[in-house]
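Thread: sanity check for a docking pose with pyridoxal-5'-phosphate

Original post by kr_44:
Hi all, I'm comparing my docking run against an independent structure prediction. Below are the sequence and the ligand SMILES. Could someone generate the full complex and paste the structure tokens? I mainly care about where the ligand ends up relative to the chain.
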Amino acid sequence: MISDEPNPNRRPIASALVRQNIYDTSENSTQGRESDSAAFHIIMSKQSMKPRNDDVVSRYDDYVMPIWKTLNVPIKHASNCVVEDYNGNEYLDVFSGISVTNVGHNNEAVVEAAKSQLDKFVHGCSYVHPNQTVAELGERLAEVTPGKLAKSFFCNSGTEAVEGAIKLARKHTGSKEVIALEMGFHGRTLGSLSLTGNSAYKKEMAPTINDVAHVAPPYAYRCQMCDGGFCSCACAEELERVIGTHTSGDLAAVIVEPVMGEGGIIVPPEGWLQRVKEITHNHGGLLIVDEVQTGYGRTGELFAVDHFDTVPDIMSQAKGIANGLPLGAFTAPAEIANSFEPGDHLSTFGGNPVACAAALATIDELQDGIVENARDQGVWLGEQLATLEDEFDVVGDTRGLGLMYGVELVDPKSGTDPMDVAPDPDPTLAKHIGERLRDQGIVMGIGGYHKNVIRFQPPLTIKRDQLQRAVSGLRTALEVEIA
Ligand SMILES: Cc1ncc(COP(=O)(O)O)c(C=O)c1O
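Reply from moderator J.T.:
Ran it for you. Here is the predicted complex with pyridoxal-5'-phosphate included:
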């Protein structure tokens, strides 16, 4: 039982006079200190605080809920593709804060746009006080998103964008059931969690929302259906079977990532997305494509659906949209979007004008050669990573699009059972590789359903020599680990 005892560490808020002195380390700045001894303590601790990595991490231990991972690099400062920790170490960032800072950390144009909006006003609730910045971003999204996607709802994160998209699909179709991909990821709030196809994220958190079923992902490397042979897109046809067996026929939506991110950078075969859309429509549902991770240039097109010539009915976005300012959105054609009536949806902070100003600048930056850079560097990266497959038995598969690449690590001695289509995943090796990369000053993601995929998702501004360093860092880490 948690006790109701008062918190002995609780301090009064410092007076204005004292607060004013907090960051002033000059000798004359003692005025007002004696009047407030607790605040004086704050001043002293802040003045003497030159945080090191350990200080930051130990405060996290004490004051931040313990959900963060051990493969951490504290950030004091970041610029383009380089982050610096509190001990003065520099790292090449090949993960972009989970695929977010697509136009580079602290991109000057984005920072300037946000600052300029900050000078005008920060908040008015964009659904109570219409403002020019949100209007402009809505119009801009209508221009840059595919097909007839035209009207957006702005929120603050990916999971909210996904949940809003589900609400809209239900409202528009009048149906309830939703199908998502096994191993897919759509967020961690309870609605999105129900769609996320990974029990590891759901343990001890259920029940989530009802009426969700899952279908096999287009995971060629471990596909039981085509058994490593010619891909017949059987996984798309599986949708038909799952609708028939796992639903009551009241289909509101099918939601998919066009390239699966957290599941392990899984690129679907040609024709898969079109067929999924066709089957979904045949059953009266809408196709929601979750571009939260793949959007804003990540795959070498502004949106990943552009690779697959498929226009979704609703598209969710977040992460790269404002290059690190918290913003999410879902966008639909007018005839779908207009199913929402006043009061059906809202968010106090959604469409914050500072974040929307940053998004406008991000889109401008992306259209100034950065998406092309992602495409070009991605082609080179894909070729380099493919050579690792030949060099190392533990590299089972490499795959990706643009600057979203995964290297799947396996135990080459396994996989001898006739039912196995690929060797067993090796998450321990992946963890060690991540640590060895960090020791070389390179931050890379580790992910995948089996936690055995090394993720290349750098800022899209990355230069060839930096990417070269990342690839040779991975090669060195592999050499050391298998020696
Ligand atoms: C495809 C996809 N959808 C949704 C989310 C959830 O986004 P957020 O963490 O902003 O809620 C993520 C996060 O990784 C994601 O990759």
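The first strand starts at residue 77 and ends at 79. Hope that helps with the comparison, let us know if your pose agrees.
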